[in-house]
Design a protein that fits this description.
Blueprint lengths: L3 E4 L1 H8 L6 H10 L3 E5 H10 L2 H12 L4 E3 L6 H10 L7 H13 L3 E3 L3 H6 L9 E2 L2 H5 L1
Parallel strand pairs: 1-2, 1-4, 2-3, 4-5
Helix pairs in contact: 1-2, 1-3, 1-4, 3-4, 3-6, 5-6
């Protein structure tokens, strides 16, 4: 298993929402992952907005205890992020997804935990490489 991975809002929302259909998969994956999760503030914001308040509070406290490393998106990243959002407008790519693609390029991590299989199978890193979705097979089981 990967020692470091990006994490998208979907697994965070599922883990924090008792009614989410992917909750069991998300909780098991997060609990068993032995590496470090990385994400961005846009992803954390999206997750907190889309989950119940109790789940958002648990997520923030988990992150504060080191459960996830949250990266700032610096102003110099905004133009490349806007360019990605234009490039993938047909999906469409949102700010949270674009920030993860930017972060992947910044820190050199292609492994990602996401339920957004279609989009992250389409997105490419600056090198042209694809993401390796660690949750792709688990969701189908």
């Amino acid at each position: 298993m990967a020692v470091a991975a990006l994490i998208d809002a979907g697994p965070l929302i599922a883990a924090g929402s008792r009614q989410d259909r992917h909750r069991a998969i998300a909780v098991e994956f997060i609990d068993r992952f032995a590496g470090t999760f990385y994400t961005t503030w846009p992803v954390l914001t999206e997750a907190c907005h889309l989950m119940p308040k109790e789940g958002a509070l648990r997520l923030l406290r988990w992150a504060s205890r080191g459960g996830i490393e949250v990266y700032e998106v610096p102003p110099v990243a905004l133009e490349p992020i806007a360019g990605m959002m234009e490039k993938y407008a047909d999906l469409p790519m949102d700010l949270a997804d674009a920030s993860l693609v930017w972060l992947a390029d910044e820190i050199g991590i292609r492994d990602i935990a996401t339920f957004d299989e279609r989009d992250f199978a389409t997105y490419r890193l600056a090198s042209g490489k694809r993401f390796n979705n660690l949750l792709a097979m688990r969701k189908r089981q």
